[in-house]
Amino acid sequence: MNRSISSIPPVVEARGISKKFVDRFAVDHLDLVVPARVCFGLLGPNGAGKTTTLRMIYGVTRPTDGTIRVFGMDIGRHLRAVRSRLGVTLQQNVLIEVLSPKENLLVFGRYHLLREPELSRRVEELIDFLELRSHADVPVRQLSGGFQRRLAVALSLVNRPELLILDEPTTGLDPAVRLALWSRIRELRAAGTTVLITTHYMDEAQRLCDQVAIVSAGRVIAAGAPAELITTRLAPEAVEFDCTPGEETALLDGVAAGRRLRIGGRLMVYLDDATDLIERVRRHDQGDRRPIIVRSTNLEDVYLSLTGTGLEVNP
Amino acid sequence: MSISLPYALAVWRRNAVMYKRTWKWNILPNFFEPVLYLLSIGIGVGAYISEIGGTSYIAFLAPGLVCVAAMNGASFEVTYNIYVRLVFEKTYDAMLTTPIEPDDVLAGEVLWAVTRAGVYGGCFFIVLLIFGLAPWPSSLWVIFVIPLTGLLFAAIGMVFSLRIPNIDMFSFYFTLFLTPLFLFSDVFFPLEERLSGAWLWVAEALPLLHPVRLARASFNGEFSVTVVWDFAYTLGMSVLLLLWARRGVRDRLTN
Fold first, then answer.
1. Are A82 and A70 in contact (CB under 8 A)?
2. Distance between CA A291 and CA A270 in Å, rounded?
3. Do B83 and B91 form a contact (C-beta atoms < 8 A)?
4. Shortest CA distance from A22: residue in chain B
5. Cα A189 off chain centre by
6. Of B4, B7, B97, the CB nearest to A90
7. Opening angle at CA B142, ends B136 and B148, nearest 5
8. Beta carbons of B139 and B133 less than 8 angstroms apart
9. Which residue of A52, A60, A71 is the best one to mutate when testing the B interface, meaning the one whose CB has the most B CBs within 10 A?
10. What does the DSSP 8-state code read for residue A35?
11. Amino acid A313: pLDDT
12. Which is more confident, A125 or B58?
C-alpha cells in the first residue's frame, strides 16, 4: 500500500521558492511537496505567505526564485495545461451577483471550454453535489453567505480538477455549512482528488488533512501528519487554567518553559500526566477551586507553540 | 503568453450573457440618443445653416454622429465596466484560475467593447437609414468603420483604465478627453475650414477625427488618398495601444 502511494509522483513540488514584493519576502525559500490523493493543509498566521504560495502554484504569481512543478510540469512553461487540471476556490468569492448559481456555473464552465451537452450535465451534477438545488435559479445576490460559498466551491470543481486548491474555504461559515463542506471535501479526496487547503481553523486541519505544513514568515516551520506533529512536538495532555505569572512560577516549578504557553491571563501546560499539576493547583487554591480544563493536546497547541501567541509579529 | 481565440471568446461570452439579460432596456437609449441629436442640432441648428461641405447640415452631421455613438459604446465598456470587474468584482482573478491567460482577457474584453460599439453605432445607423439620411448603398461602408472606431476607443480606454489609481479618474477621461474629441473632430464643423497651418497638423493627432472622415467618405461615396491615411492611423494606433494595454493587463492581473 505504502509503496504504491509513494510511486505516484507528487502533484505539487515546490523547491526553494521565494517571492519578493518591493522590500519584503512574502515567501522565503519555501519547500512544499503535496503527494497525490491526500488532503494537504497549509497553515499559518495572516501574512505568513499562504495565499502567495497558492498563487505561485497555479501560476498567477511568478516566483522570484525556485522551481514549481505541478502534475510534474513546470508551471511557468505549461500554464494552460496545468490550470486545465486544477480548480481554485479563492479566499474572496468571485460570483456574478445578478446571475443565478446555475448561470454562474455555466459561465465558469465555458472558461474551461466545456461544451453542451457536457456543460449542462456537469452543472447539474455540481448543483446536486453542493446542495444548491433549492436556489439554483435565484440571483446570487439574494443568497446567504454559506450558499454563496458553496457555489464558489462548485465553480472550482466544474472541470473535474485533479488538484483542488481551497483558500480559507470555511472562514465565516456557520457550523452546519462547515460540516457539509468538510464532508464534500472528504468525498472528493476519497474519489482521488488531491486537495490543498489553507485554513486558520486548527480543528478543521486536524479533522480534514492527512498532512499539514505550518508556515510562518514565508517558510515551512513544521510539516507532517497532524497526529504525528502533535506527538512529536508536545506532551499528550493539555491543562488550561487562568493564573497570574506569580502563581505560574510557584505552581510550575520544575516544568520546562517549552511545555507552557501563556496567552494573556490564560496558561496552557502540556504534560504526559496532568494529575500532579491538577492536585498542586487545587492545593494552592484551597477551598476556592478555579476552573481547570484537561484535554488532549491538539493541532492548535502545536500551531501556537510554533508561531507564537503575540500579535505584533504579523500586523 | 499567447492569445487563444476560444478562451477570448469565453471572456466575451461572459459579458454577452450579462448583456442578454438587460439588452431590451439598454438598447432603447441607443435609438433615442441619435434621434435627439438629429432633432436638436441637425434640424434646430441646421435651420440657420443653408449648406455645409456641399450638403445640408443634418446630412453633414449624420456620419460623424455614427462614430461618436460607436466611441461611446466602446468607451463605457472599457472604462467603468472594466474597472468594476478588475477592482471590485475581481472577475479576472477568477478567470486566471482557469486556463484563461491575461492576453485572452484583453482580447475578449476588446472584442466585447467592439461589439458594444457595433450595437451603439449600428442602432444610430439604422435610425439614419429610416430618416433617409444615409445614402444607399455607399453609406453601407460605415459598417466597417463602426467596429474600427470601437477598436480604437477600446484600445485607448484600456490603456487608461489599467493605469489609473481610482475610479474617479474616469470623469477626467470623459470630460477632458472624450467630450473635446466629440466637439472638435469634424463632427459639427469641418476642421479644415476653421483651422490653418500648423493647427491642421495638430488636429491630425485627434483619434476621433479619422473614423469620422472615414464615415463621411462612406456617406459621400468619395474615397480619396486621405482614406488610406485615416484607415492606417485608426488601425495602427489601435494595434500600438493594444500592445501597451497587453503589458498593463499582465501587470494588473499577475505579479
1. yes
2. 17
3. no
4. B255
5. 15
6. B97
7. 170
8. no
9. A60
10. -
11. 41
12. A125
**A224 CA to chain B: closest CA distance, Å?**
28
A173 CB-near residues (< 8 Å, 6+ apart): A145, A146, A149, A181
A100, B5, B110, B144, B158 from B114: Cα distances, Å = 27, 15, 6, 11, 12
* Facing B14 at nearest CB: one of A92, A107, A113: A107
Peptide bond into B137 cis (omega under 30): yes
Q: Which helix (H) or strand (E) holds A282?
A: helix A275-285
Contact assessment for residue B98 and residue A159, using Cβ atoms and an 8 Å cutoff: yes
Cα distance from B83 to chain A (closest Cα, Å)? 15
pTM: 0.91
Residues of chain A below pLDDT 50: 1-3, 311-315
Q: Please state whether A14 falls in left (phi above 0), alpha (psi between -120 and 50) or beta.
A: beta
CA distance B30 to B27: 5
Express each pLDDT in A57-68 by its tens digit.
999 999 999 999
Cell numbers found for residue A129: 453535489
User: What pLDDT digit, counting tens, does each position of B211-231 carry?
Assistant: 999 999 999 988 889 999 999
- pLDDT computed for residue A309 by the predictor: 65
Distance CA A27, CA A52 (A): 7
Is B70:B121 a contact under the CB 8 Å cutoff?
yes
Cell of residue B158, nine digits: 484600456
Q: Specify the amino acid at residue B121.
A: G
The three cell numbers of residue B180 are 473635446
Nearest Cα neighbor of A84 from A107, A111, A55 is A111
N-to-C CA span, chain A:
45
CB proximity A190 to B under 8 Å? no
Q: What is the CA A154 to chain-centroid distance, rounded?
A: 18
Contact assignment for A111 to B7 by CB distance below 8 Å? yes
Burial class from Cβ neighbours inside 10 Å (0-12, 13-18, 19+) for residue B90 reads middle
Task: Give B67-133 as a DSSP string.
Answer: HHHHHHHHHHIIIIIHHIIIIIS-HHHHHTTTT--HHHHHHHHHHHHHHHHHHHHHHHHHHHHHTT-
DSSP state of B40: I
